[in-house]
Amino acid sequence: MALRGLIRPFCDGIVHRSLFLSRNLILRVLFIPERTRYTNWRMRRDAIRRQMVKDLAVERIRLNCIRKNTVLPDELRQIADVEIAAQPRDSNYIRVRDRCAITSRPRSVIPRWRLSRIQWRAIADACHMSGVKRASW
C-alpha cells in the first residue's frame, strides 16, 4: 500500500511521458557514436606507424649508418644490427602507406590532395575542388 502511493505520481500521463523523454534523451546523449579522424582501422594503423617512424627515425638512421659503414669494426656493426632488429617493424618508413583521406583506399592516391582517383574525380566533377576543371575540347 505504501509503495502504491509512491508510484502513483509517476503513473500520471504527463509526468510519465516527460520522464520517458528525458530518459531517452539521456540514452541518446550517452550512446552517440563518436566520429574519429580515421575512416577505419587501417587508417588508424597507418597513423600509428607514421608516429612511430617519426619518433624513431633519428635513432634508426644512426644505427643504419653504423651498420653499413665498412670502416668500423665488425663487432660494432653487429651490435648495431642487433639493435635495429630489436626495434619495432613499424618504425621502418617503408611500412607507411599513403591512403585516401575519405575512404582509406591504399591504391592510386593522388599525393597533393590525399584522395584516391575515384574520390578525386567525384569531388572534381561536383565542382567542390578549387582550381580543378574538367577537360573539354
TrEMBL record:
Gene3D superfamilies xref list: 1.10.287.1480
MF GO annotations: structural constituent of ribosome
Pfam families assigned: Ribosomal_S14 (PF00253)
A single GO BP: translation
Organism: Holothuria leucospilota
Gene Ontology CC: one annotated term: mitochondrial small ribosomal subunit
Keywords carried by this UniProt record: Ribonucleoprotein, Ribosomal protein
Family: Belongs to the universal ribosomal protein uS14 family.
Classification via PANTHER family: 30S RIBOSOMAL PROTEIN S14, SMALL RIBOSOMAL SUBUNIT PROTEIN US14M
Family annotation (InterPro entries): Ribosomal_uS14
Record's keyword annotation contains Plastid: no
Protein name: 28S ribosomal protein S14, mitochondrial
Keyword RNA-binding: no
